[in-house]
Amino acid sequence: MKSISTSFLLCAALVGCAGTAGEGRVAAPYVVDAADEAAVLATMQSYVDGFYEGEPAHLERALSPELVKLGFLRPAPDEPFGDPMPMTYAEALALAAQIGESDAAPRDKSATKVEVLELADKMAAGKITAFWGIDYVHLVKEDGAWRIRHVIWQSEPALAGN
After folding, report:
1. Can you tell me the distance from the alpha carbon of 124 to that of 131, in angstroms, rounded to the nearest whole number?
2. Contact between 89 and 63 (Cβ < 8 Å)
3. What is the DSSP letter of 155?
4. N or C terminus: fewer CB in 10 A for the chain?
């Protein structure tokens, strides 16, 4: 009887966990600091602004010098993705400067969306939707400031029916 009770409790716990995972985001068992959430959003927005405005200074504020970025570019929605494109901190700053000099990026940010997906004391995860596609970012809090440490991105996914 003892093993049946233990099995029942274990099963009930697993079913309860499975229920929360299906909701798309596991509820954090900790308090989210509103100031940290605002700072994470501001950091992600500064990252976007760096590329939209061609301003490396925005990226200097947003990115960790230890940035690891990997992207998948597709020239057109009906074409295949190219090879993975890694990028370092220095390369991101250079790209922003190149965009600023060429005026290549659209200045209209109305389609941009910046979201905090998860936030803890020293780390956060976010999603950015911009003219180039979708970025998932990991941020770390270093010396009281939030910085983007990892980025993985791709061009916009194919639309349904394409």
Report:
1. 23
2. yes
3. S
4. N
Q: Kindly state the tokens that stand for 114.
A: 């910046």
E-only strand ranges, the chain: 63-72, 85-87, 113-119, 123-130, 133-142, 145-154
Contact criterion met (CB below 8 Å) for 144 and 151:
no
* DSSP assignment letter at 159: P
pTM for this model (two decimals):
0.77
What class, spelled out in words, does domain 33-154 have in CATH?
alpha beta
Instruction: Classify the C-alpha dihedral 104-107-109-110 as positive or negative.
Output: negative
Residue 126 φ/ψ, nearest 5 degrees: -145, 170
Per-domain boundaries in the chain = 33-154
Tens of pLDDT, residues 22-36: 333 435 566 778 899
Tokens standing for residue 57: 């200074």
- Alpha helical stretches, state H, 22-160: 34-52, 56-62, 89-102
Residue 116's CB is within 10 A of a number of other CB atoms, namely: 18
Structure tokens given for 54: 């061609």
Backbone torsion region of residue 101, taken as left when φ is above 0, otherwise alpha when ψ lies between -120 and 50, otherwise beta: alpha
